[in-house]
Automatic annotation (TrEMBL):
UniProt name for this protein: Helix-turn-helix domain-containing protein
Domain of life, source organism: Bacteria
UniProt organism field: Amycolatopsis acididurans
Domain called Helix-turn-helix: residue spans: 7-54
């Protein structure tokens, strides 16, 4: 099975240990790297982990 290339905001919230409302707020404010696709927010997995590590893609 191939690995997902994006996370949902709910999945990112779970990984970060924060509630979904805070995660959505952080995404909207640009603190968590994400892209808007229609009405959905998607978080690119590579950018998310780079952001966590403080590397490229950090907001």
């Amino acid at each position: 099975m191939s690995q997902k290339v994006t996370y949902t905001v709910d999945e990112a919230a779970e990984l970060l240990g924060i509630n979904r409302g805070v995660a959505y707020q952080q995404v909207r404010e640009g603190h968590i790297p994400a892209v808007r696709l229609g009405k959905r927010w998607l978080i690119p997995r590579d950018r998310f982990h780079a952001w966590l590590d403080g590397g490229e893609g950090a907001a």
